[in-house]
Specification:
The chain is built from 20 helices and 19 strands. It is of the alpha/beta class. The longest helix has 34 residues.
């Protein structure tokens, strides 16, 4: 698929110059920092040397005082407290974090994860009934609840109070809970409005620790869970999230809790762990429990204290992840086949597919995979409890949440973000939704948005990539949204003579290139799925290469190499 290379706006010249002098770095590094909002020595220090002292006061969040008042009252009166969370990574890590911390100070506590199939997303009537029947007078809802107006009213009738800890976009009307913590509330001035659901739960625990004068050190063992939620929920890794992720990764690498250590062993992760490892190795395994069976399994593993139990649950979850992969591939192949065989679907600017028999647990993954092949806003729907329910994913620059909102009269409920959302409708509304969604997309999407883009930070020479340059670049970690791995272009490079196709079917390309054959500053690289370009590269043709820089270890030797994103002749 043809890609657009979009070079990010360079930093202001004067600011870049000043930063070069104050930090003693080259222009490329200074420019990368300014592009990321790091414009002074002080902000560079905060960026390169994150500190837990930089975390915000939790009481800056609207309703935090009310939340802590209600929680401390429950603890003092020995009320029964239920920790309630969604079945995905953010929800299950949130529940594990809050449950673990409260359990260490308070006995009258349990947790509840709704069933994806019988209850669906968020606060459920079944969950409220469970709380009421089992004498839980306070529920802490994590990563959900911001739109549960009627359900919270129902809970109140049943004598069940709620503290809502959510991070999704609220409507104008908020639920009448004891407290509603959501940094995206219009009346909330909390400095970081992009926390994960688990992040909001952590701030609640931080607020409790402050009120009770418990040492902050009691909170640090929770940061491994928080890093997993931030990475998996793809929230911006800037500001407070950067600090939390930095120290969460430190915890994960040095002293992970037993459940996460078990997952790492099952995933075969032995090297220093990065955000990418969380996204591709840890997150999918935690998610698999809720997708295929029950999110309860994930929480059981994350709070496990005995190795035997952790191994048993870990093996089960790993098996569920294998089942998830099989379902994911089968349904993706079916969906791709439908589009390929339909001229009408190929001509549309959106993809909306419905099949009663597709597995609800993997349709979000299928929607993402569809975008890899057909770069359009995509909604994948299946049947659940008599309704069409599904997941939506977007392309860069297009606001999916607004598109779905424009069809809200056809929906029973929906929620999510600019780039990912969930929705439910009556089955008889699917056809009308397909039409209306397509109309909205046609009216609001640009042709550029329908071409996948690679965002490029800078145009550099291969000779710029020195050991010092890479050492500083590594300190930009942890990478993630708003601080992505830097991407570069080098123009008019040529094969040095050692490039070759690799892989079982020669589908990949091992590169050996120079800026100019006369200079001889040779750089190695790997270009996945680009093996077909080998004959032209081997012929000596000049090409532009788009890449990030990474370390490659081979036979005990560590070298920098280009991780190639795209090649243009």
């Amino acid at each position: 698929m043809e890609k657009r290379w979009v070079i990010n706006e360079p930093g202001d010249d004067e600011t870049v110059e000043a930063l070069m002098k104050s930090l003693g770095v080259d222009r490329v590094i200074a420019n990368l920092l300014v592009q990321r909002g790091v414009t002074s020595f002080e902000s560079a220090k905060a960026f390169f040397r994150p500190s837990l002292d930089d975390l915000h006061d939790p009481f800056l969040m609207k309703d935090m005082t009310e939340a802590i008042d209600r929680l401390t009252t429950a603890m003092e009166k020995q009320e029964r407290v239920l920790v309630y969370g969604d079945y995905d990574v953010d929800g299950t890590t949130s529940v594990a974090l809050v449950y673990t911390y409260l359990k260490s100070h308070f006995d009258f506590i349990d947790y509840y994860i709704p069933d994806r199939y019988s209850e669906g997303y968020g606060v459920s009537i079944k969950g409220i009934d469970y709380a009421a029947e089992n004498n839980f007078s306070l529920v802490i809802a994590l990563d959900c609840g911001i739109k549960a107006i009627e359900k919270i009213a129902y809970a109140k009738e049943k004598g069940v109070d709620f503290i809502i800890c959510d991070h999704h976009t609220p409507d104008d009307e908020l639920p009448l809970a004891a407290a509603v913590l959501d940094p995206k509330r219009k009346d909330c001035d909390y400095p970081c409005d992009v926390l994960s659901g688990c992040g909001v739960g952590f701030k609640l625990m931080q607020g409790l620790a402050q009120r009770k004068n418990w040492d902050f050190e009691t909170l640090t063992p929770l940061l491994d869970l928080l890093a997993v939620s931030i990475a998996s929920d793809i929230v911006p890794i800037t500001g407070e999230n950067r600090v939390l992720t930095f120290f969460g990764l430190k915890q994960l690498n040095e002293s992970p809790r037993l459940g996460l250590k078990t997952i790492l062993n099952l995933a075969g992760v032995t090297k220093h762990l990065s955000v990418n490892d969380i996204v591709f190795k840890i997150g999918p395994r935690i998610n698999a429990a809720g997708r295929i069976q029950s999110g309860n399994r994930a929480v059981q593993l994350l709070i496990a204290e005995k190795e035997e139990a952790a191994t048993l649950i870990g093996d089960t979850i790993n098996g569920l992840n294998e089942d998830r992969k099989e379902l994911d591939h089968t349904i993706t192949d079916d969906a791709l086949d439908r589009v390929a065989k339909s001229k009408a679907l190929l001509a549309k600017k959106s993809t909306v597919l419905f099949d009663r028999n597709w597995h609800k647990g993997v349709i979000g993954i299928v929607a993402s995979r569809m975008i890899e092949s057909y770069y359009k806003p995509t909604v994948i729907l299946t049947e659940s409890n008599g309704f069409a329910t599904g997941s939506a994913r977007s392309v860069d620059g297009f606001d999916l949440y607004n598109a779905i909102s424009a069809c809200s009269d056809l929906l029973e409920n929906f929620g999510g973000h600019k780039y990912a959302a969930g929705l439910t409708m009556k089955i008889e509304n699917v056809s009308a939704f397909q039409q209306r969604f397509e109309e909205y997309v046609c009216d609001n999407i640009t042709d550029d948005m329908l071409v996948p883009q690679v965002k490029v930070d800078a145009n550099i020479s291969l000779s710029d990539i020195t050991p010092k340059f890479y050492r500083v670049l590594k300190q930009f970690e942890p990478f993630g949204p708003k601080n992505m791995t830097p991407v570069f272009i080098s123009e008019k490079v040529v094969d040095y003579g050692y490039s070759r196709p690799v892989g079982r079917n020669k589908e990949h390309l091992k590169l050996s290139v120079v800026d100019d054959i006369r200079e001889g500053d040779v750089k190695g690289g790997i270009a996945f799925s680009m093996g077909k370009l080998y004959p032209k590269i081997a012929s000596g043709a000049q090409f532009d290469v788009c890449y990030s820089v990474q370390e490659n270890e081979y036979m005990g030797k560590i070298e920098t190499q280009l991780m190639v994103r795209d090649i243009k002749f």
